[in-house]
Amino acid sequence: MFQIDQIRASFPLIHRGSQQPIPLAYLDNAATTQKPQEVIQRVQTYYENENANIHRGIYDLARQATDDYEAARVKVQNLLNASKTQEIIFTRGTTESINLVAQCFLAPMLKPGDEVVITAMEHHSNLVPWQVLCKKHQAHLKIIPINDAGEVMMEDYRALLNDKTRMVALVHISNSLGTINPIAEMTQLAKQKGIPVLIDGAQSVSHMEIDVQALDCDFFAFSGHKMYAPTGIGVLYGKTARLNAMEPYQYGGEMIRTVSYEDSTFNALPHKFEAGTPNIAGAIGLGTAIDFIQKVGLHNIHQHMDDLLQYATETLQAIEGIRLIGTAQQKTSIVSFLLDDVHPHDMGTILNESGVAIRAGHHCTMPLMRHFEIPGTTRASFAMYNTKAEIDQLAEALKKVQAIF
User: Fold this and answer.
1) Is 25 found in the same domain as 64?
2) Last residue in a domain, options 294, 319, 350
3) pTM for the full predicted model
4) Which active-site residues does the annotation give?
């Protein structure tokens, strides 16, 4: 069963925040989530009792650290239903994962006149790498348009796919709108034409079941810190054939097999893409975060997100002057809005005085904001520990904003 009080008690910052004279309503989870005590303790335990470098040492401490690091890889493999642990590459986060694919997979094959397809709602991290590559190689970045609700226009997408398309890169859930894109259908359409697909799962992997084999995507990227794990750790899933065909992203220790002054050969997957000492504690913390999520249950979390979204939508729409940005039929966990003529940054400052932590601005989706002809939005985004009472706290704070302006 989903026990919200027990869950909130598991997160020290959330629990302490609720005890303050002005309770903290942390509603900026699309930016980063809070960490449960189990994750915090696991990272601390590693540094206190297990700290050693991995893969190289033959002493007990090094073997233990290596086992724990690789156990985390297995947990990620199971979370995504990847066919092999070798398909799981640890990175610093979604941004590095996407850049790795752009530079190691796409760059060597991109030629003048080629095309890369993305949606109009991409985070900058799934836009700028492709944009830079296209400019460098005289290729073309093609944008799938969206409607006023923030939904991909599928007929336009189909029309964009052709024999010049070398890559399709899709966000699963928009960090600005909460739109859930039909990535299964979109991936299938691309694969029918033999086009590789990357999915940005930064906003989805923490509360939706992901099956990369069923999706048949070539790459899937996400960040640990958006799913209750430490910062600085992320994952790139890639099909074995794709990863084997790619040159390494960085060079140095661990990613090599042999080195001489004349030449070097590279290690097998996944180590070929993990040069240097990795974020060992971060990976172990990610594994513990996965354990925590699965203990609560992805289905339970997803249902809770839907309940909060419905309640937040109804509550905010009841406030005169609210304009919701992003009203897709399929969406979750994120509500972006404007209030009268109040600038989002001013709103964020006043909400902070009422204990409400939200995000204000363009949310690293500047082209999307221009589509709606606005400078930015105020965004409330939810996690498993959020409650309807916190949404009520947001609504009351918004009424104070109205009174001030």
Assistant:
1) no
2) 294
3) 0.97
4) 364
